[in-house]
Amino acid sequence: MRGSNSRLERNRRMEKLDDTFQALTRHQTGTPHNLEWGQVVVEVNIMTNAGSVATAVALTNVFYRVIRTPRARALLRKEPDAALEPDKVIALDDKAKHPPYLRACLHECPRLFPPTTHGLPRKTSPDGLNVIRPRKQDSP
Predict the structure, then answer these.
(1) Domain boundaries, the chain
(2) First to last CA, the chain
(3) In this predicted model, what pLDDT tens digit does every residue of 76-88 receive, in sequence order?
């Protein structure tokens, strides 16, 4: 809260900072929005927490899928070992920084199982899917 109060004081002194707080308190033209301080705090809390929930759900889905898939689990266990040199305890090269299979899991799982309440798995049949159905020509 101390940081928020400090930021509010900077805003009252008309200090221009291009950040989310600025957008909540003033229009781009500099005109104040005249929101009560409590409203601003609530908006900041909602924005801060909204992203963390989706991230937590996405990571939970990744962990769940990896735990339930023995092949994925085995590949993920091998990846750090492959990046580690026999006489080293810590891997410092690009293989350790950007493990391809782990990155694939982290990108693919949220695509297949988005962290939303109504998201359906994003899969298509081997034949594909027609999203736009061609309209029949109107007969004269």
Answers:
(1) 56-115
(2) 71
(3) 999 888 878 778 7
Specify burial of residue 110 (Cβ count, 10 A radius: 0-12, 13-18, 19+): buried
pTM above 0.85, yes or no: no
- The pLDDT tens digits of the residues spanning 18-62 come to 777 778 888 888 788 888 878 887 887 777 777 777 888 888 999
10-47: string of b/e by CB count within 10 Å (b at 16+)?
Answer: ebeeeeeeeeebbebbbeeeeeeeeeeeeebbebeeee
Packing angle of the helix pair 2-12, 37-68 (nearest 10 deg): 130
Element (H, E) at 61: helix 37-68
